[in-house]
Amino acid sequence: MRLLIQDLTYAFRQLRKAPGFTITVILTLALGIGANAAIFTLVNAILLRNLPVTDPKTLVRIGDTNDCCVNSGYNDNGDYALFSTDTYLMFKKELPEFEELAAMESGFDYRPLTARREGPQTVAKSMMGEFVSGNYFRTFGLQPAAGRLFIDADDTKGAAFTAVMSYDTWAHDYGSDPSVVGSTFLINTQPVTIIGIAPKGYYGDRLTSNPPNFYLPIESMAVIFSVSYVHDPEVEWVYVVGRVKPGVSLSAVQAKASTLLRQQFSNFKVFSNERARTFLDRTHVVLTPGGGGIQQLQDDAKSQLHLLSWVAALVLLVACANIANLLLVRSMSRRGEMCVRTALGAQRSHIIRQLLTESVLLATLGGAVGLAVAYAGAHMLLAMAFPGAQNLPIDAAPSALVVGFAFALSLLTGILFGVAPAWIASRTQPAEALRSGSRTVAPGASLLQRGLVVLQASLSLVLLVGAGLFAQSLNKLETSNLHLDSKNRYIIHINPQAAGYATTQVESLYRTMEAQFHEIPGIVKVGIATYTPMEDNNWGTSIQVQGKPDPNKGASFVKCNAEYFDSVGTHVLMGRGVLLQDRLSTPPVAVVNQEFVKQFFKPDENPIGHRIGSPGPQSAGDFEIVGVVDDTTYTAVQWKDHAMFFMPITQRPASDKDPIETDTSLYAGAIVVEADHPMNDMEKLAQRTLSGINPNLTIVKFQTFDQQIADRFNDSRLIAQLISLFGGLALLLATIGLYGVTAYTVVRRTSEIGIRMALGAERARVIGMVMRGAMTQAFLGLIVGVPVAMLCVRYVKAQLYEIDTVSLGVMAVPVVVLVLAAGVAGMIPARRAASVNPVQALRVE
pLDDT per residue over 282-339, tens digit each? Predict the structure, then answer.
């Protein structure tokens, strides 16, 4: 310990004597380690995070996919992760291997509710609610922050409607008011008693940017949301997570659950025909760890975070190469000191230990500053990745694991890149101190130093090419022809169901909405639809053309009003669109897109007049095709073969004999307003208009159409921006490294340059000599970097849009930038060398 304290004291004194060197090293390391720690903060918070519950390691999920949200029919691959309420109850009864087995709604974030505390002058808000089983909180081993949590009796038919409020909602929206517990809230106009507050820090059973504000029992969903599928055995809508008993074999439970599922499905109508029974044999479930909850966000972000981790690691490698070069230069400048210390009896191991102490100390200081960089960087990344998120349960503050990661990285960096300089410096001989005044024409920088510069240049080129590829991919996405018009268009997301409207009332409501919005000056078109283009939503079903064989294909569908196509800029190419007279009482019609015609009809076959519907003799003729429209892009640009059909919003399939009260497809999800000029106050006007119709009609989400489209490119834009940022940082570090080595070379060769100039060498030749050395290293970096960049494309191709290789333009720009940076880095010391006074250079000796 005494020796360690002595080494640290001496190291601090040496670093204080060279503030420029110390600050440069610390800042360089802070950028490299900070970038990695920022990415690791997100990796830890998103990919490695367990739910804030009791003993998450014993939780097991039945299922391994993120199927959503309300499904029916069968899966072609037979892999099930979404279940009906009846299937959940069957599992709960027949799988005693689970101590507890809970169910939770799969797509709550697509189904906001309207909540208002009972009382005068209270305002209805659009909020998130998740329907869960009565043993939900007990399964996770949670205790309430106030009041109580659900018990099984709360989730039974006929039980009084109850809810548990999230802690964040209680704290932020209601000031932690104790009177909230026991009070009545009107949720979708239904009176619900708040029985308790969820524990602090609990964000739900999955990581999402919109965690639930309320938890409600499954049995109350049929009334609160007026849905009929809660106990429909063939409609899948819940995820299932449980806690297994000690010593249970998961493989045996998995096999048993798969057998139980096949037995239950064998009685379903969907599996009644011979073809469907071939899919029944494939039916199975996969048990997966449930400690991280439902992994939807994790699965979506996994590839991007892994890519950013590799990019940040390359930046750290460039930074470390820079540090190694700086330490090499410093060790060479201290050779005289090392010779004297050796002559005075210092052991070689002591010198290595001292120099390693300095490098580790530098790395530790760099890591400490890097944590501040990581904190700011993680905040920036979260703001870019989740713009506008209100209650995001991801903390940008470095956790203990992140701090440990940064410390370990700093320690590893200090040791790895301090060993070589320490080893070289310790090998000096005492006699060299006596020869230090001899003149030399040595090239100055060592082969190791030059090799590190070549490494920096090549890695910088790889990152710059990567930035160019992702920028090109983003440009292709953003400039794609979406076959829509977003100018002066506004998207107003609504939820009439949550406002208390029955399906029998919506036709009148939509006519009122059209009339009220048209009264706003400047409004040209008012479109109403279940969902809109470039929205993260999709409704799909199997489809068949009457009189044709079942093609075993599906298509997406949108229900809309007469002005919808004009409001989003979709053009009718053949026949007609939806008309005002297409109402509930008139024969059902459909409009299809060009891709639908391509997939379901022969070339040159006229689709107008044909009838379509769900596969089967009774339903295949539900709708008559009356028109064909453009292939307007929905959901994602990457979805190239997107067959779609459009129906009048209040019409139902001719074969549908179920009561209209149970048909939730009649509820609109959005209003698209087209104005004749930009309207900055459109959100206020829309809210005023909706409130005038019904105080419970609230805006779920408001966006300009341009904003909604831009949101679909957020992930691609984030990756392109970050890789460009990291590429620029790597280029800066490489440029500094090249400058440092070149400047060091000039200093080492001062006497040689002085002799050359004394013997008549021209200034231009001296500049050329120095520049040749600098540019040679840059070109060697290009020779190494170009093929590596070409090779790396195959590993990121899946994240690029319509890009398979590096184009000449994408490669040329980074090459030119790197050459220019090398030129600048070399020119400064070259001009300094050409300004050497021969007499002064000779006197240096």
Answer: 889 999 999 988 888 778 778 888 888 888 888 888 888 877 777 776 666 556 666 6
The CB-based long-range contact list for 50-53 (8 Å cut-off, 24+ gap) reads 50/291, 50/292, 51/140, 51/205, 51/291, 51/292, 51/293, 52/199, 52/201, 52/202, 52/203, 53/140, 53/141, 53/142, 53/202
Closest by Cα among 389, 366, 395 to 711: 389
Q: Which residues pair with 71 in a beta bridge?
A: 236
- Give the ranges where 154-249 is alpha helix by DSSP (H): 167-174, 221-224
47 strand-pairing partners? none
Per-residue pLDDT at 384 exceeds 90: no
Q: How confident is the model at residue 612 (pLDDT cuts 50, 70, 90)?
A: very high
pLDDT digits (tens, 9 = 90+) for 6-34: 767 877 777 777 777 788 778 888 888 88
Strands 190-197 and 162-165: parallel
The amino acid at residue 359 is S
Question: How far, in Å, CA of 413 to CA of 114, rounded?
Answer: 54
Rounded Cα–Cα distance for residues 283 and 789 (Å):
44
Q: Which residue has the tokens 């009545």?
A: 184
The residues pairing with 554 across neighbouring beta strands, listed in sequence order, are 542
Phi, psi for residue 244 in degrees, rounded to 5: -80, 155
* Environment class of 414 (CB within 10 Å of its CB; exposed 0-12, middle 13-18, buried 19+): buried
Residue 578 pLDDT > 70, yes or no? yes
Q: Can you tell me the distance from the alpha carbon of 667 to that of 495, in angstroms, rounded to the nearest whole number?
A: 7
Amino acid residing at 710: A
**What region does 351 belong to: left with phi over 0, alpha with psi -120 to 50, or beta?**
alpha
Q: Which residue has the tokens 């892009």?
A: 633
Residue with tokens 């940082």: 729
For residues 585 and 508, is the Cβ–Cβ distance under 8 A? no
Q: Give residues with Cβ within 8 angstroms of 702, minimum separation 6.
A: 490, 491, 492, 493, 682, 683, 686
Helix segments in 62-162, DSSP class H = 85-94, 136-139
pLDDT tens for residues 498-522? 888 989 999 999 999 999 999 999 9
Residue with tokens 């200090």: 414
Which of 138, 149, 130, 154 is CA-nearest to residue 216? 130
